[in-house]
Amino acid sequence: MSARTTILLCTLLLRVPPLAAQAPASPPGLLGVARGSDGTEVLIDPASVTRSGDSTFVASTVTRFSAAVGARRRADREVETAELDCARDRSRGMTWALYLGDQPVSGDTLEYTWKPVAEDWLPVSRAICGVLLASFASLPVEREGDAVDQPPVFLPPTEAVRAQYRRHGFPGGGRWSGTALARVRIGTDGVPDAAGARILWASRREFAEALRFQLSLARYTPARMHGEAVPVWLTVGVEYSVHCGNDPEGRDEQRATLRRTRERLVCAY
Questions:
Q1: What CA–CA distance (Å, rounded) separates 160 from 149?
Q2: Backbone angles phi, psi at 149, to 5 degrees
Q3: Which of 54, 154, 194, 229 could disulfide-link 216, Cβ–Cβ 3.0 to 4.6 Å?
Q4: Which residues have CB under 8 Å from 240's CB, separation 6+?
Q5: pTM for this one?
Q6: Beta strands in 123-256 (DSSP E)
Q7: CATH for 159-268 (3.40.250.10, 3.30.2420.10, 3.20.20.150, 3.40.50.300)
């Protein structure tokens, strides 16, 4: 669990009853894990789950607050993606994000190192692992990019690919800046599954679409385990900056918006 969310989750941690079963009512597409007496819920996004070892999984957990929390930045939902070692009660965080409704509030990467699960979070972590072991233990093992003998290496783009980047409007500078993070499977041929990539965080919807486009052009050397090419999962991120070239002095900034055309990210008025 991210240290940033400890305060946000304290109500849940103090009030979670013994976790012998899933919460009975879950939003469509999510698996309930725990529910506090104030209505705060912890759920698993099943579409996010991969199996990285005999008892290790990567999953996105969703914490839904019963009411918006926070002073300056209010949020009613947190999504954290982490790898969990269910046999050893430890985890390593990848990313976290806060939302208010469908609007992103804040997000960041987490230190991707193994750490023991905090004692106050242990009942929830074990409940999450119970669901993972019961429902996802039959998934094939597909390791993380840092858990193989030879990790995949990003190949510098060719001039043809660079030209496509330029036509698509990357990079820019100045008017809008932000980030997008995605979790993507790299095949044994070194080609990312761009269509199946999961966007973990995007400060703007347009940046999520831009990252998918870049993944569709990216190529890697295949990852190898014991000399054989194997598929792996990577977490990749890109920073974006887009400039309104037709308003260099910024006099019309209040009316400027960012929009996505078929070819590129552009400024519109």
A1: 31
A2: -65, -40
A3: 194
A4: 170, 171, 172, 176, 177, 178, 179, 180, 207, 210, 265
A5: 0.79
A6: 176-186, 198-202, 223-225, 228-230, 232-242
A7: 3.30.2420.10
